Amino acid sequence: MKTNILILTMLTMLSQQTFSQTYPTFVTEIPVTINGLTFDAMEPSITADGNYIFFNSLNDGITTSIYYATKVNDSTFTYSGPLTGANQTITPRLDAVASSDSANNFFWVSIRDFPSQFDNYFHGTFNGTDVVNIGRVHGTFYIYIPGWIIMDAAINYQGNLLYYCNAYFTPTYSGCSGLPCEAKLGVAQKQNDSTFNKLINSDGIMQNINDTNYVVYAPFVTKNEMELYYTRFLKSDPTKTEICASVRTNVTDTFSLPSIIYTSSLFPEAPTLTTDQSKMYYHKKVGGVYKLFLRYRTSATGIKETENIVGVTIFPNPSNSLVQFNLPNPHKNYSIEVYSILGQQLLKITDKTTIDISNFTSGIYILKLKQENKTWTTKIVKQ
Fold it and tell me: Which end of the chain is more exposed for a tag (fewer CB within 10 A), N or C?
């Protein structure tokens, strides 16, 4: 009897945990344009202020280098060139998988002097054009067995936690057709500028992520530490990849079982989010070339939809200029308000059926339509 009660209690707790978690959702992807770029762009990373995007060229391990571009709008950047200081100059070379924290501390993987120097993760400072004060990162998050390497990693917003991927390629680093034979995620904590040590509960935090049926890699954690994004593929079927998200309700909790955001044989990989979590960038293969893509998040912080916008037609949506409305009661007084996802009112009009959003930055906005005692709320997307 006691055993049955214990089992029932555990199932109830698990059920409550499952239903208390909210997985992120995103709208249809938008291609990202990098003006002046003529080659592959992979593994994007956005700076905390959103002004720069880092990426690396084709991950072939021969001439792979890190580059950066400056923001024009959410889906358009201008190519700035290679990231001086972060890249090797001797071929074969691999400098890739950039990330940075809110203080512009910059991190990336490199195979320089590998495997004579087994610690293949590096740090420096991004000053807007270059990476300076470069050093090698040490710590207990490495696996010092031939065949293992830090394949991917991402620093968190605060700069005190490193989310990393240990990947195994066999002792000669040439097995499994160039793909990892296995890979797993972990978390390491900062000891000083050049040392991160694996958290004692890292394996527990990642227990729902490190499914042995999959190769998991390319981690990214949101500013609030509540959402973990990563890529995976089935060991039995490496012909397609999945971008996944796992969530938790407390920073000390284990991340949940994953929700699959996007799966395709075009190999979508390496999700990364902006600081406000409203935009997700990633890469995938199109026409033999890897390119970057953007998806806007459908949920908006702090905005609650009061009613479905039944009977109201909004078009076009997305739009890059004018948005029009057909209302159920067009002859009664009404007002239309537009808010940013942070709740700032940007526009208010009355008794008009068209609004102009051409001066808005690309992204998601909250539209409220008020008429008599009713308020309808929905989202519009500026391209």
Answer: N
User: Minimal CA–CA distance to 27: which of 369, 374, 363, 372?
Assistant: 363
Domain 25-296 matching CATH 2.115.10.20: the answer reads yes
The full set of domain ranges for the chain reads 25-296, 313-382
Residue 136 near residue 149, CB atoms below 8 Å: no
Q: How far apart are CA 189 and CA 91, in angstroms?
A: 33
- In residues, how long is the chain? 383
pTM of the model: 0.77
User: What gap in Å lies between CA 185 and CA 245, rounded to an integer?
Assistant: 13
Superfamily of domain 313-382: Macroglobulin (MG2) domain (2.60.40.1930)
At residue 207, φ and ψ (nearest 5 deg) are: -65, -30
Q: What is the pLDDT of residues 175-210, one digit of tens each?
A: 898 899 999 999 999 999 999 999 999 999 999 999
CA 7 from chain center: how many Å?
A: 37
